[in-house]
């Protein structure tokens, strides 16, 4: 019974006590305010005050016998009809809600990821965001990406990116892995510039795409964060492009 009460409360928006009255009438078939109060365990005044709204909604019916009101439920299907009516009302106002949502200023959003599974999910967010022909800007700072990323993930990633016709520009320190990226640049839709500077060394990466920035650490147990922000993305694009032109 408790489970039924919980489901009905969530589905109908009725209060716990209204649901108790409704289910009590289903059990006893017909009753007065006193009958319903005794069976449900609710106070008589509570039942008395709640019944008019339930009657008005059509969930509960009322008749008069011996000059006394008797309450009953004629058709439990009314409950389904009420839910359908609510759904129809929501459907009618949904276009207005979408319009309202579109005029609200964009709010930056931050999502954190951790572990191998989270790390992979974070990087694959790029495919949910980018369209064919889009470009990703990347800072890559690890000499051992294949050892850092989940097994075979680096190959899966670039193949899927190429299949979707998403290109990338990369800034990276010069090391063996980045030099290999130069050799495969055309095949993997990549432009890459290497930086020979002992201060430009880090074990992390940044991916800039759409209105998002993915920040990831290759060293600290696969932790990362995606920030969705028009202005922060614009700023980092400017920084990336400035560096790109200077190198």
Notes on the structure:
With 247 residues, this protein is an alpha+beta fold. The chain folds into 2 domains: 75 residues, Winged helix-like DNA-binding domain superfamily/Winged helix DNA-binding domain (Arc Repressor Mutant, subunit A); 138 residues, Endonuclease Chain A (Endonuclease, Chain A, 2-Layer Sandwich), CATH 3.30.870.10. The chain is 52% helix and 22% strand. Helix 2 packs across helix 4 and helix 6 packs parallel to helix 8. The longest helix is centred in the middle third of the chain and has 27 residues. The radius of gyration is 31 Å and the shape is rod-shaped. The model has no long low-confidence stretch (mean pLDDT 85).
Topology of this structure?
Layout: H1 2-12, H2 16-28, E1 30-31, H3 33-40, H4 44-57, E2 61-65, E3 68-72, H5 77-103, E4 109-114, H6 115-129, E5 135-140, H7 145-148, H8 153-163, E6 167-173, H9 176-183, E7 190-195, E8 204-209, E9 212-217, E10 223-228, H10 230-246
Parallel strand pairs: 5-6, 6-7
Antiparallel strand pairs: 1-3, 2-3, 4-10, 5-8, 8-9, 9-10
Helix pairs in contact: 1-2, 2-3, 2-4, 3-4, 6-8
Number of E strands: 10
Protein structure class? alpha+beta
**Mean of pLDDT:** 85
Task: Report the biggest beta sheet as strand number plus sense, adding barrel if it closes.
Answer: 7 strands, mixed
Element-by-element helix/strand order: HHEHHEEHEHEHHEHEEEEH
Overall 3D geometry? Answer: rod-shaped
**Total domain count:** 2
Strand content: 15-25%
User: What's the CATH class label of the largest domain?
Assistant: Alpha Beta
Annotation field: number of helices: 10
Name of the CATH homologous superfamily of the largest domain? Endonuclease Chain A
């Amino acid at each position: 019974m408790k489970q039924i009460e919980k489901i009905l409360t969530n589905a109908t928006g009725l209060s716990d006590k209204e649901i108790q009255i409704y289910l009590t009438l289903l059990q006893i078939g017909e009753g007065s305010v006193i009958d319903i109060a005794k069976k449900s365990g609710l106070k008589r005044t509570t039942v008395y005050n709640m019944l008019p709204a339930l009657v008005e909604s059509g969930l509960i019916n009322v008749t008069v016998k011996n000059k006394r009101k008797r309450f009953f439920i004629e058709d439990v299907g009314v409950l389904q009809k009420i839910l359908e009516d609510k759904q129809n009302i929501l459907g009618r106002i949904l276009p207005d809600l979408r319009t309202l949502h579109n005029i609200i200023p964009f709010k930056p959003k931050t999502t954190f990821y951790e572990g191998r599974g989270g790390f992979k999910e974070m990087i694959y967010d790029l495919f949910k965001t980018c369209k064919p022909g889009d470009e990703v800007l990347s800072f890559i700072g690890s000499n051992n990406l294949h050892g850092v990323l989940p097994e075979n993930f680096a190959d899966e990633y670039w193949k899927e990116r190429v299949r979707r016709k998403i290109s990338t520009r990369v800034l990276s320190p010069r090391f063996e892995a980045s030099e290999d990226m130069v050799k495969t640049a055309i095949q993997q839709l990549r432009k890459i510039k290497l930086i020979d500077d002992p201060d430009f060394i880090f074990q992390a990466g940044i991916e800039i795409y759409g209105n998002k920035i993915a920040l990831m650490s290759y060293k600290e147990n696969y932790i990362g964060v995606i920030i969705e922000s028009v202005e922060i993305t614009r700023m980092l694009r400017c920084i990336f492009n400035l560096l790109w032109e200077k190198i």
